[in-house]
Design goal:
The protein is elongated and about 45 Å long. The protein has 73 residues and is α+β, with helices and mostly antiparallel strands. 19% of the residues lie in helices and 32% in strands. It has one helix and five strands; from the N terminus they run E-E-E-E-E-H. The longest helix is centred in the C-terminal third of the chain and has 14 residues. The strands form two sheets. Strands 3-4-5 form a three-stranded antiparallel β-sheet, covered by helices on one side.
Length: 73
């Protein structure tokens, strides 16, 4: 889960596994795989950092192929 902030200042948590895309229009808009959209105060780069940290914490990025690394020789 990642924490983000609604436009009214209330914090809430999203399951990062369901995030399909994050856009800036200029407000940061998070679209889930369900089609639900959330507009948040957090800048897009901060949201992306939180998503990456979440993926690392659950070891989704532990696979070298998912990280984009070349095959070992």
């Amino acid at each position: 889960m990642i924490q983000v902030t609604r436009l009214n200042g209330a914090a809430f948590h999203l399951n990062a596994l369901y995030i399909e895309k994050v856009e800036s229009f200029p407000d940061t808009t998070i679209t889930l795989t369900t089609g639900t959209k959330y507009v948040v105060l957090d800048p897009i780069d901060i949201v992306n950092e939180r998503i990456i940290k979440f993926y690392q914490s659950v070891q989704i990025l532990s696979n070298p192929h998912l990280r984009g690394e070349k095959d070992e020789e």
